[in-house]
Amino acid sequence: MHILQALIERGEVTVTEMAGELSVAPSTAHRILVTMTEHGAASRTPSRRYGPGPLLARPTRSPNALAATGRAFIDGVEGRQALRIGLRIGARIPAYCTSGGKAILAAMSVEQVVRLHPNGLPPWPGQRAHSMDELFAELDQVRRSGVAVNVGESEPGVVAIGVALPSSPLPTALAIALPADRFERTGLAELERALHEGIRRLPPEDAESASEM
Q1: DSSP 190-202
Q2: N vs C: which end of the chain shows fewer Cβ within 10 Å?
Q3: 106, 90, 65, 87: which is closest to 155 by C-alpha?
Q4: How many Cα atoms occupy the beta-carbon half-sphere of 20 within 13 Å?
Q5: Three-class DSSP category at 82
Q6: pLDDT tens by residue, 96-153
């Protein structure tokens, strides 16, 4: 999100600038920018800098911008345990089948969600909701609890929880994914604490957005 904000405010950024500001290796910053470019959020300039992509250039950057085409995974960090969930950077999964995607949809109005699915929900192997009514019932639960949960919907044997950051430049969510058997031992409350701790450690402008949830 810091990179998105920088692209919007500055027009162009370099890999070195972003690596320094995010306190990550240049290779990591480069990977994130390449992934953003592949999904239209950034573009490569002739001077080897990065500017806003066509997604950011649209007149209206509403929650429809990403959710209309599914949820894209921009970056992630793997856990240290031997059994862990691999990164899915660049993968695209229907938003209603991921914890982060559900959190984003829950922050939208009923009308916006309906417009995203004029022909009903696109099929996905692990989908739990098979109709718009079932999806709306689940989104109501997300709004009440403050977090979205995905149990084996995006991938068999994987559980994830996520929250949306509603004030970010593009519809964005932060999520934690782990094997289902470890989720049973860890519990939802501990994961929620870890998720909100992750939000607290976001760069200042993003943490401010998260605090408005």
Answers
A1: HHHHHHHHHHHTS
A2: C
A3: 87
A4: 5
A5: coil
A6: 988 989 999 998 899 999 998 989 998 988 899 999 999 999 999 999 988 999 998 9
Q: Which residues contact 3 (CB under 8 A, 6 or more apart)?
A: 13, 18, 22, 29, 32, 33, 36, 42
Q: For position 189, which CATH number holds?
A: 3.30.450.40
Which is nearest to 154 in space by CA: 130, 124, 180, 118? Answer: 124
State both tokens at 113: 């969600």
Which position has the higher pLDDT, 108 or 89? 108
Question: Would you state the structure tokens that stand for residue 115, as one six-digit string?
Answer: 């417009």
- Residue numbers of the domain that contains 197: 62-210
Total domains, the chain: 2
29 neighbors 18 (Cβ within 8 angstroms)? yes
Same domain, 171 and 150: yes
Pair 89, 161 in one domain:
yes
**Domain termination residue (choose one: 31, 59, 87):** 59
Same-domain status, 2 and 103: no
